[in-house]
Amino acid sequence: MDGKWYYVEDGERKGPVEKIVIDKFIEAGSIGDDDYIWTKGYENWVKVKDVEEFNQEKVTVEDDFPEVIQGEMSLKVLSNNENSIFLKIGTDRGGQDVEYGPYSLEIIQKLYRENRINEKTFLFLRGMTDWTMLADFSDYAEVFEETPPPITEEDRRKNIRKPFIARMYLENKQEVYVGICRDISIGGMQVLIDHVPANVGDGISINVHPDNTEHHFVAGGEVVRLLDGGQGFSFRFVDLNEDAKEAIQNYLTHG
Question: Are residues 249 and 170 in the same domain?
Answer without folding.
Answer: yes
